């Protein structure tokens, strides 16, 4: 096993720990069954008294069997590792971790943040925790329905069941909040929070603007060929990416050159390459790390 693989398993483990903390500190004690296998296990826990982690493991066993039968071993060792470790850590932490709040809204929000942070790390480092992701992939082989739609259907069914079992539609609504917060946090972890801005600059003086971008701002720029559908004339559009701190300066530069310029500014989650975050790729065969060019 290479150092890269070891590093990935370390981060998957950290992600599992955050996920377990979110479940044990906030969601399970407050009866918030926010979809998925953990939500089903939470419902079963309050009905039968069985440990949540052990129940999650029991629910995942048939999913793995179906996954092997329908999908082969494509989900690999990381799925098995993530599923087993999450089940063990959830039951282990239950004895030690405190329950900071019994306020359902706070529990829904902070539980969603911790679970989303944990799952985001697991997914970012190519792991999974089994559960409804695998169930949806298996169901897709039978139905052909989009996986995202299946996941939503499964989560909605779990939330509805929780509302019925706990006789509280408020808890079901809190679970929906957790689902949205978790999804948002997963995206945040995987895509990053360091927003950059993409500028699309439409002008009749693109060469002068490009020189300003290249030399005064020190950023790269690309000229895109475009055609105005109203005028029918060909023109160039400048595309450049800058940090948030450079937005005001770039707008000022553009309008100094061409007061009639038209600018579109878009949020960019992540930029890899020169002048921004370095991209590193790994060779599966040699384990050599090299810069992506």
Automatic annotation (TrEMBL):
GO terms for cellular component: plasma membrane. This is Uncharacterized membrane-anchored protein YitT, contains DUF161 and DUF2179 domains. It is found in: Cell membrane. The chain crosses the membrane at residues 6-27, 105-123, 144-165, 171-189. PANTHER family: UPF0750 MEMBRANE PROTEIN YITT (PTHR33545:SF5), UPF0750 MEMBRANE PROTEIN YITT-RELATED (PTHR33545). Residues 219-273 form the DUF2179 domain. Its main location: membrane. CDD domains: YitT_C. Keywords: Cell membrane, Membrane, Transmembrane, Transmembrane helix. It is a multi-pass membrane protein.
